Description:
Layout lengths: L1 H12 L1 H20 L8 E2 L1 H8 L3 H14 L2 E4 L3 E4 L4 H25 L2 H20 L2 H19 L2 H20 L6 H17 L2 H22 L4
Antiparallel strand pairs: 1-3, 2-3
Helix pairs in contact: 1-2, 2-4, 3-4, 5-7, 5-8, 5-9, 5-10, 6-7, 6-9, 7-8, 7-9, 9-10
Amino acid sequence: MNNRLSDVLDVSRDPEDAESQTEQAHRQIEEMIITLELPPGASVSEATLSARIGISRTPVRMAIKRLEHQGLITCVPRKGVFIRQLRVEDELAVLEVRRPLERMLACKAARSTTEAQRQTLRFCVECMVQAALAGDVRRYLHFDSECDRIIYETSRNPFAIDFVELLYTHSRRFWVAYSKQADWIKIARLHEDMMNAVADGDEARTGAGSEALIAYLEDFCKSVIGLA
């Protein structure tokens, strides 16, 4: 009880700092879930997470609520807090929603990226290919996120961005889990085709590239569960 009161008093003294700590807690715990440092089905608690990341329990509690809303954590009354199980069927559902959103955002980027953004896209996708060739999945995902960031900047649609970022979070966890089965070079080349089309300002080629990428990812998921 004293610990909880202390947390509340700390938050009340500096709301901006509390918000910052909540963001930090959310980001760190989310990354631990995505990278499977917190594996699917694992039981967690405010206390253990707080000790693990070095942030007080109130911000951690708020981060847990946000992660539950994202579908990454399940809170079961009288049983505890658990990392959501990972199912291939969920990734197929995610890809179904990603398909139109990704195409829309990428095509919009093809129409409006600046020269500096085009150069950065080319650089990042080249780094993605090199990471794939080296078998460095984390580096690959880092530059994939950088490409996405540029696409977001050009869209100026916060609603689409919020939604697609949630979908990407689930996809990243899936691809970390199945990294050893995936053909990262093939996936990188498909990204390369699409991002270079964006950088070239070729909307038709961008749309086709987006469709090809999602189709390949869906085929991979189906092969994992024996539907292909």
